[in-house]
Amino acid sequence: MSDSIQIAHISDLHFHADDGDLDPAEALEMFADQVARLGYRQENVVLVISGDVTTKGRTGGFSSAVRNVRDKVLKRGLFSQIIVCPGNHDISVSRRKFHEFNDFAFAVTNDEKQLFTEDSSVVVTKFRDFDFVAINSAHHGDHRFGSINLHQVHRALSTCGPKTILVTHHSPISSRYGGHGLEHSHELLTLASQHGALALLHGDIHSDQVLTVGRTRTKILGVGSLGFVPGSNMNNQFTVYNISETNFSGVLFIYKKNRNDFVPTELQVP
Q1: Is a pLDDT exceeding 60 seen at residue 197?
Q2: What is the structure's pLDDT at 38?
Q3: What pLDDT does residue 58 have?
Q4: Which domains, ranges and CATH numbers included, belong to the chain?
Q5: What are 249's strand-pairing partners?
Q6: How far is CA 78 from CA 39, 73, 100, 211, 244, in A?
Q7: Given CA atoms 240, 69, 51, 46 in this order, what sign does their dihedral have?
Q8: Who's near 80: CB < 8 A, 6+ residues apart?
Q9: Burial of 106 (0-12, 13-18, 19+ CB in 10 A)
Q10: CB neighbours of residue 36 within 10 Å
Q11: Do 219 and 269 contact (CB within 8 A), yes or no?
Q12: Model pTM greater than 0.90?
């Protein structure tokens, strides 16, 4: 077994949004094709989906996401582990705020522990000697901004080893290109740095973001929407990271309309 792992990071699928140049189902198929071409061993590869599976809480978006993630991606046998967290668009209009997202989560992960409620907003999933900490930044049920339950994050990190990767939807760093604010972002980054987390993966801003923070140089890595209608300074994309004892590198795949495919470019990870 290799000492390295690979993480394929997608976000903001936005099923049941307005039509754009790239349908989310088509984007998922292209995504799987590109990951397959990389030739990684399934036992080493993790898929991370960092929220906004549907659009505006639409129930039909969740069922479409389940069907297409299963058919276009999971049936290919590319991933050994799937990690998910909700986004602000995944807040249900029903009284049970994350019931529909949890149905999606269980359908694609087959992991009954990766479920989110208003009272339980952080889930730790172990993969080999890595700890993935999925944080529901929409746990408070307000789609206008993100919020972190710092007590639950701190408690979760106390159970984790040195190879920890945080996953949340909202970016802890605001951007002029969009995205919602995240309450307690400074405190979240402080906790991540104090623990020595390798990285924090997020979506929301529909654009790639690469920063490092703290003395341990925790990497803050955002990715654009896989299939949502791109706007100014935004494009459809996904990222694949390769992590070993001595290396943290990445490849950013950006959709090019004239080629109708995702085109890889080396990601400059400090």
Answers
A1: yes
A2: 96
A3: 85
A4: 5-267 (3.60.21.10)
A5: 242
A6: 9, 8, 25, 28, 19
A7: negative
A8: 42, 43, 44, 45, 46, 127
A9: middle
A10: 12
A11: yes
A12: yes
